[in-house]
Amino acid sequence: MRWLVLSVTSAVLASSVLSVAQARSKGPARFFPDPSSIFAADIAFSRMAREQGQWTAFRKTAADDAVIAVQRPELAANWLKGKQDPPQAVKWQAHRAYVSCDGRLGATTGAWQGPDGAQGYFTTVWRRDKKGEWKWVFDHWDRLMTPRDSVEALEGHVANCKNLPGRRGPGADIMPSPDDRKSSKDHKAEAPPLDESLRWSYDIGTDGSRHVRISLWNGSGYDMVIEDKVGAVR
């Protein structure tokens, strides 16, 4: 446990030094693909929820175009607007983290526990903003009858940087707004980062069912590293 705390602290310091270096350099920002930094962001997110309020934390850590998946994909800024914090926040712990080769996109998945005894899992997609800070761009969760097993050590994975797929140009990692889609159809979206070494997508049916996938480049193809399936809303 102590090793994990030291790793996260080091990641925060490294991120600060890196941000200063980037501010002095010209051209596109470059980041070291360090899973510890995304674990640190998730831990800070969870702590903020406990100390400042659950939905307050969601608002403060979300990207402007963040999407939250409930019965349909919702623009987080709209869905969270005016939402009152519950008396006690949900607790969560990221177990695994995945980061793209360029260090700009990542994902965490883990377990959550509600104050009422409910339990489940979550998956969050993160993206660096212009300042180099991690902001979440997609979040979804579901309940489980049996909780996920606790972990003794966090798992961090980085995409293989060899033989990277072709780039798609600026803006390719921006998710389309949920408001641009018709509610009468199934909602589908994909979002590859600029280097396409980490891909994520979701499908949300009109019945509320959803399928979330995260894939990581292995040097010659993609490995499915996260696959969440949520049944239809009854």
What does this structure look like?
The chain has 4 helices and 11 strands, in the order H-H-H-E-E-H-E-E-E-E-E-E-E-E-E. By secondary structure, it is of the alpha+beta class. The chain has a single domain (2-230), classed as Nuclear Transport Factor 2, Chain: A (Roll), CATH 3.10.450.50. It has a 7-stranded mixed beta sheet with strand order 2-1-6-5-4-3-7. It has a 4-stranded antiparallel beta sheet with strand order 8-9-10-11, with no helix packed on it. A hairpin with a 3-residue loop joins strand 1 and strand 2 (73-75). The longest helix is centred in the first third of the chain and has 23 residues, at 2-24. Residues 1-27 and 168-185 have low confidence and may be disordered.
- Write the CATH architecture name: Roll
Largest sheet: 7 strands, mixed
Distance between the termini: 40 Å
Estimate the helix proportion, in percent. 10-25%
Task: Give me the strand/helix succession.
Answer: HHHEEHEEEEEEEEE
Structural class by helix and strand composition: alpha+beta
Question: What is the CATH class name?
Answer: Alpha Beta
How many helices? The count is 4
Gross geometry: globular
